[in-house]
Design brief:
Layout: E1 7-13, E2 16-24, E3 29-31, E4 34-35, H1 36-39, H2 44-50, H3 52-56, E5 63-70, H4 74-92, H5 97-102
Parallel strand pairs: 3-5
Antiparallel strand pairs: 1-2, 2-5, 3-4
Amino acid sequence: MAEATYFYGLGRRKAATARARLYKGKGTVTINDKPAADYLDGNKTLLAEITDPLALVNKQKEFDVTIRVQGGGTAGQVDAIKLAIAKALTTAHSDLRPTLKKAELLKRDSREKERKKYGLRSARKREQFSKR
């Protein structure tokens, strides 16, 4: 383990970008200078999803997590945060990489919104075809 004040990870999903810093601490999670419960309006499912990488390796009470997230919606931000925390954990403890990789927490979901094409109603939706 390298001697540093914090461990850094970057995660992206759709239009959201999250930068996570892991500090030695007691397990508090802060998102954009707010407690995670306040930022996510007390949604327990999303709160649990954010701490998935830490829970998988039993490090919830070992690190304080500070996150800066911007862009996208709530679901995209949560997925970006999860990836950022997982990447920061691998920089902190490189021996955890196989565990996180097997749980597919180190994969970036590259699906983005497809742009609307001219002549169509949306990205792929067309006018109804009439044979006669």
